[in-house]
Design a protein that fits this description.
Number of helices: 21
Low-confidence stretches: 47-53
Radius of gyration: 30 Å
Strand content: 5-15%
Number of domains: 2
Length: 571
């Protein structure tokens, strides 16, 4: 499989535009209907004058800040999901790194979701984009009442699901989980903010919500300090201490941002114990200050600690092309800002606007947000059970089938599974597919062979004009018996046009180098080798290349592509 993540920005932008316009139409129609209904029924109050305040009670300042801040974060997360590398890279960068340490039941559940994503990466990504943006819009527009509670509960449910599936319990089950890396996960802060929005408004005006936020912040800091002390998290080692800073310093960004990160990473590598004693001390001091001091200074101090960590250890969380959220430092700082005494002292501003226009526009906005957060994801989710699409193949194979500049296929003379010598010159006049397999591989190689067999059957009588060539990549298992065993055990002996070629390791190394194939022989485990399908025209010239990821759920799609290209070359 190709190592680079495929850019699917084109199809992603196209589907985003079509679905977004559909949601916009829904919102506009709903707003127009609401406005027309108010005019016809004459039940709406007359517009208030510029000097006459609205009768609606003002939202407490702290609640308003938390609601708007986390609505914006949900929208930012949706915008991050729009990055061109997300459809092809989300599963590999955000989901799979956590799977190895998860319980078997959870791995099975996540496996279902990742397979669905792999079959339709653009569709799945668009569904997530609009859900997160729509949820943020709902939190922005719904200030009170049942709509506000529904939006908060939706945020809680989504946050818990993302925390378990997307963040793997915030990384707590894997090594390296701590304050600097963002454990136990940014989305838990989103959940906490949504829970706070369910509190009665009187809690915000009386200061009880402020106290709850302080307790939550103190508990978070104490838990983070405990994580930093666990030897299994490796923060006391040079590599473990410098790891978060090394990751940030490797990102492309202005030197003004990266230079302090590199400096701190160097200090962490030289003095890991000192660094983490300081971190633990700061966390415990922050927790104590939040609990013991009720003034503004304590909240400002811990906000500075969170934002400093967000920059120096988490590198703002949004760089790299496959980031899904800003990491934990920023959301935690915003949540703690909701505990500033300023919000209780400030006079909440009342809305002053024509009621009829406000009501109609709000109906339209909520309808638009509901279309984004509910209707569009539901419609797109229904397509995930369909067979894999072309975007899935492109994502899995580093771009799909690629036409390559015409050049003669490298010369070779090897022996097949029957002991017959086959040379490149013998194949002139036939359309050829060349692939590279390990005869003792039990994962990708059999899948590649199966899809070639499927393509051969689909060709019908055209198969007489096609030859399938597999070249042995294993320098240890390189005999006729080895390739014959693979051919027999995987049912390839039924194909008269199948040839699994082998030879002496020194000669095979030269042949593979001519084809541009790389081989890695680990001390333990299977041979690692480049995989792909090279299409050769009847005149012996290379015509196209398919970098085959051999994903089990996509083998049917690969067989279809192989068949189509062979028909194109053979006719």
């Amino acid at each position: 499989m190709g190592g680079d993540i495929v850019d699917l920005g084109g199809p992603l932008a196209s589907l985003l535009l079509r679905t977004g316009l559909g949601a916009l139409v829904v919102g506009l129609v709903a707003g127009l209907i609401a406005g027309l209904a108010m005019v016809l029924r004459r039940r709406a109050p007359q517009p208030a004058s510029a000097s006459e305040p609205s009768n609606e009670p003002p939202e407490p300042g702290g609640r308003r800040f938390v609601r708007i801040a986390f609505a914006a974060l949900w929208i930012v997360d949706g915008l991050l999901q729009m990055q061109p590398l997300m459809p092809a890279g989300f599963v590999g960068s955000a989901i799979e790194p956590h799977l190895a340490t998860q319980p078997a039941l959870l791995r099975s559940l996540v496996g279902v979701l990742t397979r669905a994503w792999s079959r339709h990466p653009v569709v799945a990504d668009v569904a997530v984009v609009w859900f997160e943006i729509g949820l943020g819009a709902l939190l922005l527009l719904c200030r009170r009442g049942r709509a506000s509670r529904a939006a908060a509960w939706l945020a809680i449910a989504a946050g818990v699901l993302i925390w378990v599936v997307g963040e793997g319990f915030g990384g707590l089950t894997a090594s390296g989980a701590g304050w600097l890396t963002g454990a136990p996960g940014a989305v838990l802060v989103y959940v906490a903010a949504a829970v706070l929005l369910l509190l009665p408004w009187s809690w915000w005006t009386s200061g009880r919500a402020e106290t709850v936020i302080r307790h939550l912040g103190a508990a978070w800091f104490i838990g983070a300090a405990v994580l930093q002390t666990v030897p299994a998290e490796r923060f006391w080692t040079a590599s473990g201490a410098s790891g978060p800073f090394a990751d940030g310093a490797s990102m492309s960004q202005p030197s003004a941002f990266s230079a302090p990160i590199r400096s701190l990473g160097g200090f962490a590598g030289d003095h890991p114990a000192v660094l983490h004693l300081v971190v633990i001390a700061l966390l415990l001091a922050g927790a104590a200050w939040l609990e013991l001091d009720r003034g503004t200074a304590s909240v400002v101090a811990v906000i500075v600690l969170c934002l400093s960590t967000w920059w120096l250890a988490q590198d703002f969380g949004v760089l790299g092309g496959t980031a899904t959220d800003p990491n934990t430092g920023l959301p935690l700082a915003l949540l703690l800002a909701g505990a500033l005494p300023y919000w209780r002292a400030a006079e909440p501003a009342r809305a002053r606007a024509p009621r009829r226009v406000v009501a109609a526009s709000r109906v339209g906005g909520v309808a638009f947000a509901c279309a984004l957060a509910v209707a569009i994801p539901a419609v797109l989710a229904a397509t995930l059970v369909r067979p894999p699409d072309s975007d899935a193949l492109a994502a899995d194979s580093a771009g799909g089938l690629r036409t390559i500049p015409a050049r003669a296929v490298p010369a070779f003379s090897l022996v097949d599974q029957h002991g017959h010598r086959i040379s490149s010159s013998d194949l002139r006049g036939k359309v050829v597919v060349v692939t590279f397999l390990d005869p003792v591989c039990s994962s990708e190689c059999p899948l590649i062979a199966f899809q070639l067999a499927d393509a051969d059957r689909a060709l019908g009588t055209l198969a007489d004009r096609v030859e399938f060539i597999a070249i042995d990549t294993n320098p240890v298992f390189h005999s006729v018996d080895d390739v014959a065993a693979f051919t027999q055990s995987h049912g390839m002996s039924r194909l008269s046009n199948w040839h699994f070629l082998c030879g002496e390791p020194a000669y095979m190394q030269g042949v593979l180098a001519e084809f541009g194939m790389s081989i890695d022989v680990p001390a333990v485990g299977m041979i690692e080798h480049s995989s792909g399908l090279l299409f050769v025209s009847a005149d012996g010239g290379e015509a196209a290349y398919l970098d085959d990821g051999a994903a089990e759920q996509l083998t049917g799609s690969y067989a279809d592509v192989v068949e189509r290209e062979l028909r194109n070359l053979a006719q």
